[in-house]
Amino acid sequence: MAILRPKLKFFKGSTYVIDQSDSSNAGHPLKFTADSGVSEYTSGVTATGTPGQAGAKTTFVVPNDAPENMMYYCTAHGIGMGQKIKIVTNPSIPSTKWYGDRALVSAGLISNYPNTDARNQIEYFDITTNSNSSLFGELFATRYNHGSLSDETRAVFAGGNDVAGNNLNSIEYITSSTTGNGSDFGDLYATRVQLAGVSNGTRGIFASHDYSQDMEHITIQTTGNGSDFGDLSNNVLQNSSMSGTDGTYGLFAGGLTWAPVFYDVIQYVTISTAGNTQDFGDLSVARGVSQTSIANDNRVCFAGGNSTATSTNSDVIDYVVASTPGNATDLGNLSIAMRYLSGTNNGTTGVVVGGSNDNGTTFRNDIQKFTIDIAGNASDFGDLAVAVQKNSSTSANAS
Questions:
Q1: Which of 47, 66, 160, 294 is the most exposed place for a label (fewest CB within 10 A)?
Q2: Which residues does residue 250 pair with via DSSP β-bridges, in sequence order?
Q3: pTM, whole model, 2 decimals?
Q4: CA 244 to CA 232: how far, in whole Å?
Q5: C-alpha span between 226 and 214 (Å, rounded)
Protein backbone atom coordinates (compact mmCIF):
# COMPACT_ATOMS: atom_id res chain seq x y z
CA MET A 1 0.00 0.00 0.00
CA ALA A 2 1.37 3.42 -0.95
CA ILE A 3 2.14 5.91 1.81
CA LEU A 4 0.71 9.37 1.24
CA ARG A 5 3.27 12.14 1.81
CA PRO A 6 5.83 10.01 3.70
CA LYS A 7 8.42 11.52 6.02
CA LEU A 8 11.88 11.02 4.56
CA LYS A 9 15.47 10.72 5.80
CA PHE A 10 18.30 11.80 3.50
CA PHE A 11 22.01 11.30 4.11
CA LYS A 12 24.49 14.14 3.62
CA GLY A 13 26.71 13.52 0.60
CA SER A 14 24.24 11.06 -0.98
CA THR A 15 22.33 11.43 -4.26
CA TYR A 16 18.55 10.88 -4.49
CA VAL A 17 16.69 10.62 -7.81
CA ILE A 18 12.92 11.08 -7.53
CA ASP A 19 10.98 9.69 -10.50
CA GLN A 20 8.17 12.05 -11.55
CA SER A 21 7.23 10.42 -14.84
CA ASP A 22 3.92 8.96 -13.61
CA SER A 23 0.90 10.89 -14.89
CA SER A 24 -0.22 11.60 -11.30
CA ASN A 25 2.71 14.06 -11.04
CA ALA A 26 1.27 16.35 -13.73
CA GLY A 27 0.87 19.87 -12.37
CA HIS A 28 2.89 19.11 -9.23
CA PRO A 29 6.47 20.44 -9.58
CA LEU A 30 8.60 19.17 -6.68
CA LYS A 31 10.62 21.64 -4.63
CA PHE A 32 12.57 21.68 -1.34
CA THR A 33 12.63 24.21 1.48
CA ALA A 34 14.57 24.69 4.71
CA ASP A 35 12.23 27.30 6.20
CA SER A 36 8.71 25.84 5.82
CA GLY A 37 8.11 27.27 2.39
CA VAL A 38 9.34 30.83 2.87
CA SER A 39 12.06 30.23 0.27
CA GLU A 40 13.12 27.43 -2.04
CA TYR A 41 16.24 25.39 -1.23
CA THR A 42 18.18 24.83 -4.46
CA SER A 43 21.67 23.65 -3.47
CA GLY A 44 22.32 20.29 -5.14
CA VAL A 45 18.83 20.17 -6.73
CA THR A 46 18.36 19.54 -10.46
CA ALA A 47 14.93 19.17 -12.14
CA THR A 48 14.71 17.31 -15.47
CA GLY A 49 11.70 17.23 -17.80
CA THR A 50 8.03 17.99 -17.06
CA PRO A 51 6.29 16.25 -14.13
CA GLY A 52 3.82 13.68 -15.39
CA GLN A 53 5.73 13.02 -18.60
CA ALA A 54 8.30 10.35 -19.49
CA GLY A 55 11.79 11.07 -18.20
CA ALA A 56 10.72 13.61 -15.60
CA LYS A 57 12.77 13.49 -12.40
CA THR A 58 14.28 15.60 -9.65
CA THR A 59 17.82 14.85 -8.49
CA PHE A 60 19.00 15.99 -5.06
CA VAL A 61 22.72 15.72 -4.26
CA VAL A 62 22.54 16.50 -0.54
CA PRO A 63 25.28 18.98 0.47
CA ASN A 64 27.40 18.24 3.52
CA ASP A 65 26.25 21.55 4.99
CA ALA A 66 22.54 21.00 4.28
CA PRO A 67 20.26 22.00 7.20
CA GLU A 68 19.07 19.24 9.52
CA ASN A 69 15.34 19.94 9.02
CA MET A 70 13.89 20.37 5.54
CA MET A 71 10.62 19.75 3.65
CA TYR A 72 9.61 18.70 0.16
CA TYR A 73 6.51 20.35 -1.32
CA CYS A 74 4.52 21.08 -4.47
CA THR A 75 5.16 24.49 -6.02
CA ALA A 76 1.53 24.75 -7.13
CA HIS A 77 -0.10 23.64 -3.86
CA GLY A 78 2.40 24.63 -1.16
CA ILE A 79 3.72 22.75 1.86
CA GLY A 80 0.28 21.24 2.51
CA MET A 81 1.16 18.87 -0.32
CA GLY A 82 4.53 17.94 1.20
CA GLN A 83 6.22 16.51 4.25
CA LYS A 84 9.33 16.70 6.43
CA ILE A 85 12.83 15.49 5.50
CA LYS A 86 15.46 14.80 8.16
CA ILE A 87 19.03 15.40 6.91
CA VAL A 88 21.59 13.24 8.73
CA THR A 89 25.22 12.13 8.43
CA ASN A 90 25.73 8.76 6.78
CA PRO A 91 28.02 6.73 9.08
CA SER A 92 29.19 4.58 6.16
CA ILE A 93 30.61 7.55 4.23
CA PRO A 94 34.11 8.60 5.36
CA SER A 95 34.60 12.13 6.60
CA THR A 96 36.02 14.68 4.18
CA LYS A 97 36.76 17.36 6.78
CA TRP A 98 40.19 18.40 7.97
CA TYR A 99 39.01 20.29 11.04
CA GLY A 100 36.75 20.17 14.09
CA ASP A 101 35.90 22.06 17.29
CA ARG A 102 38.86 20.72 19.28
CA ALA A 103 42.10 22.65 18.71
CA LEU A 104 45.29 20.61 19.23
CA VAL A 105 48.51 22.57 19.80
CA SER A 106 51.64 20.43 19.70
CA ALA A 107 55.17 20.78 21.06
CA GLY A 108 57.34 23.77 20.07
CA LEU A 109 60.24 25.77 21.43
CA ILE A 110 59.96 27.18 24.97
CA SER A 111 63.42 28.77 25.33
CA ASN A 112 65.99 30.01 22.88
CA TYR A 113 69.73 29.88 22.25
CA PRO A 114 72.15 29.13 23.82
CA ASN A 115 70.04 26.90 26.09
CA THR A 116 67.44 25.76 23.59
CA ASP A 117 64.59 23.78 25.11
CA ALA A 118 61.85 22.04 23.12
CA ARG A 119 58.78 20.30 24.49
CA ASN A 120 56.64 17.29 23.60
CA GLN A 121 53.35 18.29 25.23
CA ILE A 122 50.05 18.58 23.36
CA GLU A 123 47.54 21.15 24.61
CA TYR A 124 43.89 21.42 23.58
CA PHE A 125 40.87 23.71 23.85
CA ASP A 126 37.33 24.08 22.48
CA ILE A 127 37.32 26.59 19.62
CA THR A 128 33.63 27.43 20.22
CA THR A 129 34.25 28.87 23.71
CA ASN A 130 36.83 31.42 24.85
CA SER A 131 39.10 29.60 27.28
CA ASN A 132 42.63 28.64 28.22
CA SER A 133 44.19 25.39 27.03
CA SER A 134 44.52 22.11 28.95
CA LEU A 135 47.03 19.26 28.69
CA PHE A 136 46.02 16.56 26.18
CA GLY A 137 49.08 14.29 26.39
CA GLU A 138 52.61 13.96 25.09
CA LEU A 139 54.27 13.19 21.77
CA PHE A 140 56.92 10.48 21.92
CA ALA A 141 59.43 12.97 20.45
CA THR A 142 60.25 16.54 21.42
CA ARG A 143 59.61 18.64 18.31
CA TYR A 144 59.69 22.15 16.96
CA ASN A 145 59.52 23.38 13.37
CA HIS A 146 57.31 20.35 12.71
CA GLY A 147 54.10 19.92 10.71
CA SER A 148 50.61 18.71 11.57
CA LEU A 149 47.36 17.84 9.79
CA SER A 150 44.14 15.99 10.58
CA ASP A 151 40.83 14.54 9.57
CA GLU A 152 37.84 14.77 11.91
CA THR A 153 39.08 12.07 14.30
CA ARG A 154 42.87 11.78 14.00
CA ALA A 155 45.71 14.31 14.17
CA VAL A 156 49.13 13.54 12.68
CA PHE A 157 52.46 15.21 13.55
CA ALA A 158 55.63 14.85 11.48
CA GLY A 159 59.27 15.88 11.21
CA GLY A 160 60.83 18.97 12.76
CA ASN A 161 63.81 19.39 15.06
CA ASP A 162 64.42 17.64 18.35
CA VAL A 163 65.81 19.30 21.48
CA ALA A 164 69.37 18.88 20.20
CA GLY A 165 68.49 20.51 16.87
CA ASN A 166 68.62 17.23 14.92
CA ASN A 167 66.25 16.86 11.97
CA LEU A 168 63.50 14.25 12.39
CA ASN A 169 61.64 11.97 9.99
CA SER A 170 59.26 10.30 12.48
CA ILE A 171 55.47 10.58 12.19
CA GLU A 172 53.06 10.03 15.10
CA TYR A 173 49.33 10.41 15.66
CA ILE A 174 46.63 10.82 18.30
CA THR A 175 42.88 10.16 18.37
CA SER A 176 41.35 13.59 18.95
CA SER A 177 38.44 12.46 21.14
CA THR A 178 40.61 10.68 23.72
CA THR A 179 43.29 12.50 25.69
CA GLY A 180 46.57 10.60 25.71
CA ASN A 181 50.01 10.26 24.20
CA GLY A 182 51.16 9.98 20.61
CA SER A 183 51.53 6.63 18.83
CA ASP A 184 53.91 5.65 16.04
CA PHE A 185 52.52 6.23 12.52
CA GLY A 186 55.57 5.67 10.32
CA ASP A 187 58.37 7.76 8.82
CA LEU A 188 58.81 10.47 6.25
CA TYR A 189 61.11 9.27 3.48
CA ALA A 190 63.55 12.05 4.43
CA THR A 191 64.27 14.09 7.56
CA ARG A 192 62.38 17.36 7.25
CA VAL A 193 62.06 20.58 9.24
CA GLN A 194 59.85 23.67 9.02
CA LEU A 195 57.07 21.54 7.62
CA ALA A 196 53.60 22.58 6.53
CA GLY A 197 50.70 20.15 6.18
CA VAL A 198 47.45 20.04 4.20
CA SER A 199 44.63 17.48 4.24
CA ASN A 200 41.39 16.69 2.42
CA GLY A 201 40.14 14.52 5.28
CA THR A 202 41.58 11.36 3.68
CA ARG A 203 45.03 12.18 2.33
CA GLY A 204 47.59 14.38 4.06
CA ILE A 205 50.51 16.15 2.38
CA PHE A 206 53.63 17.37 4.17
CA ALA A 207 55.82 19.87 2.35
CA SER A 208 59.34 20.64 3.53
CA HIS A 209 60.34 24.27 3.59
CA ASP A 210 63.96 23.97 4.66
CA TYR A 211 64.97 25.07 1.14
CA SER A 212 63.52 21.88 -0.29
CA GLN A 213 60.81 21.58 -2.92
CA ASP A 214 59.75 18.06 -1.91
CA MET A 215 56.19 17.10 -0.94
CA GLU A 216 55.16 13.69 0.36
CA HIS A 217 51.78 12.21 1.25
CA ILE A 218 50.15 9.79 3.69
CA THR A 219 46.69 8.27 4.15
CA ILE A 220 45.56 9.66 7.51
CA GLN A 221 43.66 6.59 8.77
CA THR A 222 46.31 4.10 7.58
CA THR A 223 49.64 4.02 9.38
CA GLY A 224 52.70 3.81 7.14
CA ASN A 225 55.55 5.79 5.63
CA GLY A 226 55.35 8.88 3.46
CA SER A 227 55.45 8.64 -0.35
CA ASP A 228 56.50 11.18 -2.97
CA PHE A 229 53.73 13.54 -4.09
CA GLY A 230 55.50 16.14 -6.23
CA ASP A 231 57.44 19.38 -5.93
CA LEU A 232 56.83 22.95 -4.87
CA SER A 233 57.51 25.51 -7.60
CA ASN A 234 60.12 27.39 -5.57
CA ASN A 235 62.82 26.55 -3.06
CA VAL A 236 61.87 28.62 0.03
CA LEU A 237 61.95 28.48 3.81
CA GLN A 238 59.17 28.91 6.36
CA ASN A 239 56.06 29.33 4.28
CA SER A 240 52.62 28.06 5.29
CA SER A 241 49.92 25.80 3.92
CA MET A 242 46.26 24.89 4.30
CA SER A 243 43.45 23.05 2.53
CA GLY A 244 40.52 24.76 0.87
CA THR A 245 37.35 24.27 -1.20
CA ASP A 246 36.03 21.29 0.75
CA GLY A 247 39.53 19.82 0.79
CA THR A 248 40.01 19.79 -2.98
CA TYR A 249 43.04 22.07 -3.05
CA GLY A 250 46.12 22.48 -0.87
CA LEU A 251 47.60 25.98 -0.84
CA PHE A 252 51.19 26.96 0.07
CA ALA A 253 52.03 30.64 0.56
CA GLY A 254 54.92 33.00 1.20
CA GLY A 255 58.36 32.12 2.51
CA LEU A 256 61.87 33.53 2.21
CA THR A 257 65.42 32.79 1.11
CA TRP A 258 68.61 33.22 3.12
CA ALA A 259 69.25 36.58 1.35
CA PRO A 260 66.63 37.19 2.77
CA VAL A 261 64.05 37.76 0.05
CA PHE A 262 60.41 37.47 1.14
CA TYR A 263 57.94 35.82 -1.22
CA ASP A 264 54.31 36.72 -1.85
CA VAL A 265 53.66 33.68 -4.06
CA ILE A 266 50.67 31.37 -3.40
CA GLN A 267 50.86 27.97 -5.10
CA TYR A 268 48.45 25.04 -5.03
CA VAL A 269 47.93 21.35 -5.71
CA THR A 270 44.89 19.12 -6.10
CA ILE A 271 45.26 16.96 -2.99
CA SER A 272 43.75 13.80 -4.49
CA THR A 273 46.13 13.84 -7.48
CA ALA A 274 49.93 13.64 -7.10
CA GLY A 275 51.81 16.35 -8.98
CA ASN A 276 53.71 19.61 -8.78
CA THR A 277 52.25 22.90 -7.59
CA GLN A 278 50.75 25.53 -9.88
CA ASP A 279 50.54 29.28 -9.45
CA PHE A 280 47.45 30.49 -7.55
CA GLY A 281 48.14 34.21 -6.99
CA ASP A 282 49.91 36.50 -4.54
CA LEU A 283 49.62 37.43 -0.87
CA SER A 284 48.70 41.06 -0.11
CA VAL A 285 52.01 41.35 1.78
CA ALA A 286 55.12 39.26 1.08
CA ARG A 287 56.11 37.47 4.27
CA GLY A 288 57.63 34.36 5.81
CA VAL A 289 59.17 33.31 9.15
CA SER A 290 56.34 31.02 10.10
CA GLN A 291 53.23 32.88 9.19
CA THR A 292 50.23 30.57 9.62
CA SER A 293 47.32 29.43 7.46
CA ILE A 294 43.71 28.83 8.50
CA ALA A 295 40.90 27.59 6.24
CA ASN A 296 37.30 26.44 6.00
CA ASP A 297 35.54 25.01 2.93
CA ASN A 298 35.55 28.38 1.21
CA ARG A 299 38.39 30.64 2.33
CA VAL A 300 42.07 30.18 3.12
CA CYS A 301 43.46 32.86 5.46
CA PHE A 302 47.12 33.75 6.04
CA ALA A 303 48.14 35.48 9.27
CA GLY A 304 51.25 37.01 10.82
CA GLY A 305 54.85 36.22 10.00
CA ASN A 306 57.75 38.56 9.25
CA SER A 307 57.39 40.93 6.32
CA THR A 308 60.82 42.62 6.28
CA ALA A 309 64.48 41.74 6.67
CA THR A 310 64.49 43.55 10.03
CA SER A 311 62.76 42.43 13.23
CA THR A 312 59.39 43.82 12.08
CA ASN A 313 56.54 41.32 12.41
CA SER A 314 53.35 41.41 10.38
CA ASP A 315 49.86 41.68 11.87
CA VAL A 316 48.18 41.17 8.47
CA ILE A 317 45.38 38.65 7.99
CA ASP A 318 44.51 38.20 4.32
CA TYR A 319 42.57 35.52 2.44
CA VAL A 320 41.76 33.93 -0.89
CA VAL A 321 38.66 32.10 -2.08
CA ALA A 322 40.16 28.66 -2.61
CA SER A 323 38.00 27.73 -5.60
CA THR A 324 39.18 30.74 -7.63
CA PRO A 325 42.88 31.40 -8.31
CA GLY A 326 43.71 35.05 -7.63
CA ASN A 327 45.40 37.43 -5.24
CA ALA A 328 44.73 37.68 -1.52
CA THR A 329 42.34 40.26 -0.06
CA ASP A 330 42.73 41.99 3.31
CA LEU A 331 40.57 40.52 6.11
CA GLY A 332 41.88 42.43 9.14
CA ASN A 333 44.74 42.44 11.62
CA LEU A 334 46.02 40.34 14.49
CA SER A 335 45.75 42.03 17.89
CA ILE A 336 49.46 41.23 18.38
CA ALA A 337 51.83 41.01 15.40
CA MET A 338 53.59 37.63 15.60
CA ARG A 339 56.13 35.40 13.90
CA TYR A 340 56.75 31.71 14.67
CA LEU A 341 53.02 31.24 15.39
CA SER A 342 50.62 28.49 14.39
CA GLY A 343 46.88 28.38 13.76
CA THR A 344 43.81 26.27 13.10
CA ASN A 345 40.01 26.59 12.90
CA ASN A 346 36.64 24.85 13.24
CA GLY A 347 35.21 26.09 9.95
CA THR A 348 33.87 29.33 11.46
CA THR A 349 36.46 30.68 13.88
CA GLY A 350 40.18 30.87 13.19
CA VAL A 351 42.56 30.73 16.16
CA VAL A 352 46.20 31.83 16.16
CA VAL A 353 48.40 30.48 18.97
CA GLY A 354 51.77 31.25 20.49
CA GLY A 355 54.65 32.87 18.63
CA SER A 356 57.01 35.76 19.20
CA ASN A 357 56.19 39.47 19.02
CA ASP A 358 59.82 40.42 18.34
CA ASN A 359 62.73 38.75 16.53
CA GLY A 360 62.23 35.44 18.36
CA THR A 361 63.64 36.42 21.74
CA THR A 362 60.23 36.66 23.40
CA PHE A 363 57.91 33.66 23.78
CA ARG A 364 54.13 34.16 23.91
CA ASN A 365 51.19 32.10 25.20
CA ASP A 366 48.48 34.21 23.52
CA ILE A 367 45.52 32.67 21.70
CA GLN A 368 43.89 35.12 19.26
CA LYS A 369 40.67 34.52 17.32
CA PHE A 370 38.89 35.91 14.25
CA THR A 371 35.90 34.99 12.09
CA ILE A 372 37.01 33.47 8.79
CA ASP A 373 34.12 34.67 6.62
CA ILE A 374 33.72 38.19 8.08
CA ALA A 375 36.18 41.06 7.68
CA GLY A 376 37.52 42.24 11.04
CA ASN A 377 40.41 42.16 13.45
CA ALA A 378 41.47 39.37 15.80
CA SER A 379 40.61 39.51 19.50
CA ASP A 380 41.74 37.72 22.65
CA PHE A 381 40.58 34.11 23.10
CA GLY A 382 42.62 32.86 26.08
CA ASP A 383 46.08 31.56 26.92
CA LEU A 384 48.20 28.48 26.35
CA ALA A 385 49.58 26.81 29.46
CA VAL A 386 53.13 27.53 28.28
CA ALA A 387 54.62 30.38 26.25
CA VAL A 388 55.84 28.75 23.04
CA GLN A 389 56.92 29.40 19.45
CA LYS A 390 57.64 27.24 16.40
CA ASN A 391 54.81 24.91 17.49
CA SER A 392 52.14 23.39 15.25
CA SER A 393 48.34 23.39 15.43
CA THR A 394 45.50 21.45 13.89
CA SER A 395 41.92 20.58 14.91
CA ALA A 396 39.51 17.64 14.94
CA ASN A 397 36.37 16.48 16.72
CA ALA A 398 36.08 16.02 20.48
CA SER A 399 33.78 13.01 20.11
A1: 47
A2: 243, 269
A3: 0.76
A4: 17
A5: 12
